[in-house]
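Supplementary Methods, section 5.1.

A reviewer requested that the exact input to the structure prediction be made available. We therefore reproduce it here, unchanged from the version used in the analyses.
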Amino acid sequence: MPTPDAPMHFQAADSTRWTVVVRYDNYAAAQKAVDHLSDEGFPVSALSIVSSGLRLVEKITGRRTMAATLATGATDGATTGLWIGLLLALFTNRDSFATAVMYGVLLGAAGGTLTALISHWAARGQRDFTSVPFVAGQYYEVVATDARANQARIILGHAGLLATGNGS
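The structure derived from this sequence is encoded token-by-token as follows.
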């Protein structure tokens, strides 16, 4: 964690000089510091939260089975078919409106199921799992323009948000 007597600086793309006010181990702590500065009337437009040590994390959420793949394909297809059916129904008479929407949903579900079946078959057992990817940082720095950094440190120091640098 930088100390007030040894600030770290960097130059932004727009030639603004920034100084690291405090470094945290998690984003929530950095957000809490900025929220506190905002509550104290600090001009938060002079701040940024910079994440470093980025890595892509893929959280595995489950196994992808044939049944789940087909159900997802049918649902996605039915949703697309609903919108197409509604669009086509705008150009039909009142008696055919429900029929157009119903056929859109049914044909969409059938098409989505078929597409999912082909996709699952073509994968040949590769990537038989579902996941949610996200980007995580190793640490998060609250930075301020050079002119505002000391003021931000003083405010965070009075609140006890500067001493540990980890948000605890």
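The beta strands are 9-11, 17-24, 47-52, 55-63, 129-136, 139-145. These observations are discussed further in the main text.
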